[in-house]
Each structure stands twice: as structure tokens, then as C-alpha cells.
Amino acid sequence: MRLMLTRHGETPSNLRHALDSRPPGPSLTEMGHRQASALADRLAGDRVVAVYASIAVRAQETAAPVARRHGLAVEVVEGIHELQVGDLEGLSDEDSLRRFGLVYDRWTRGDLAASMPGGESGEQLRARYLSTLEQICAKHDDGLVVVVSHGGIIRLGAEWLADNVGARLAGAKLLPNTGHVLLEPRDAGWHCLEWTGVDL
């Protein structure tokens, strides 16, 4: 079994560079819908056995074309939604983005006690995300499982899961809309095979 952690398509908040974490959140832009269709095209030849999405609208809209292409339903699950930024919600000014980045960098370096102002701690985020993925993976023995969620949490999750993803990669802004991290089980853990077209 392989696990593809996929970021949603473009949203209006992405265009404004705004911190947008609270579900259900906005729908995709027209470009975002085109990106979702292109994602379905890219995965048309894969043996996709399940498609999951977070409780955010943008994740479900991105997952829908992939699921339809393979005759599946989108399974919406709690626990894999974006990290909650609290008091920074909806903000796009330089200071707010800096404050977000400082906490996020602490998380990538293992300081999970740090919290977003008025939002989640790394410990809370890690617990809900990894437990949800564990439940998802327990249902599948083979094939490709596509999980559509959000850039921030995917990059952290990849670091927590994969034996070859470290803080430097997790902290880099290298996951575009509908970008993905492809993982496979290895030695009782996970190994990252690909990071949006880059083999690891």
C-alpha cells in the first residue's frame, strides 16, 4: 500500500497569502477546480483504492474528481484538517506571517509544546493527525490511498512519519496546490518516495 498526502487546490485565501485554517473554509477558485481535474488526470492510471478528505470544503472539492475517476466516494474524516492558527486566522500582514513561521519552525525542530497564539500546540496537532492516518491505513492492505488535506499539516506529517524527511525539507515551502508527498511502508514505519515530482 502507498499513501499519497495531497494538498488541496487554489483558494481565494491562497491568492491573498492569508492564514486560513478554520473549517469549513472557502471553496476552490476556478484555477483550483482546474488543478483538481488535472490531479485526477495524473492519477488516472494508478490503482486508487480510497480517497479521503478533510472537513474543509476545499479539500473535498479537490478530492471529488479523483474519486469520480475511480468510481469511489470521498470519505470525509476529522483530524486531518489544517493546523489551527487561532488569533492569526484570516491575517496576511508581514508580522502575522512572521509569527506563524516562528512557531512552525519550532515544530519542525521538535518543539511540539509551542502553540500558535490562541491556536493549537504541536502536540495537539500531532496527536490528531497521526491517529487519524493510522485509522485510515488500518483499512487498506494495498493500492494507492489518496488523502487530501492541507500544506502545513502535510509537511509536518511527512516529517513525523517518514524516515527520510527532516526539518529542513518540512520547513521549506515546497508543496504547491495539489502537490503531494508519496509514502510507502518500510521497517515498521514510512519512507518518502516522492515530494511533488522530486524522488527522494
Features:
single chain; 200 residues; alpha/beta; 7-stranded mixed beta sheet; 7 helices; 7 strands; globular
Structure description:
Helices cover 39% and strands 18% of the residues. With 200 residues, the chain is α/β, with parallel strands linked by helices. Strands 3-2-4-1-5-6-7 form a seven-stranded mixed β-sheet. It contains seven helices and seven strands; from the N terminus they run βααβαβααβααβββ. Helix 3 links the parallel strand 2 (48-53) and strand 3. The protein starts with a strand and ends with a strand.
SSE diagram, text form:
Elements: E1 2-7, H1 12-16, H2 30-42, E2 48-53, H3 57-69, E3 74-76, H4 94-108, H5 122-137, E4 144-149, H6 151-161, H7 167-171, E5 180-186, E6 189-195, E7 198-199
Helix pairs in contact: 2-3, 5-6
Structural class by helix and strand composition: alpha/beta
Distance between the termini: 18 Å
**Average of the residue pLDDT scores:** 95
- Give me the count of strands: 7
CA-based shape: globular
Low-confidence stretches: none
Strand content: 15-25%
Query: How many individual helices?
Result: 7
Sheet with most strands: 7 strands, mixed
Compressed to H and E, one letter per element, the order equals EHHEHEHHEHHEEE
Give the helix proportion (percent range). Answer: 25-40%
What value does the Rg take, in angstroms?
16 Å
> How are the strands of the largest sheet arranged?
3-2-4-1-5-6-7
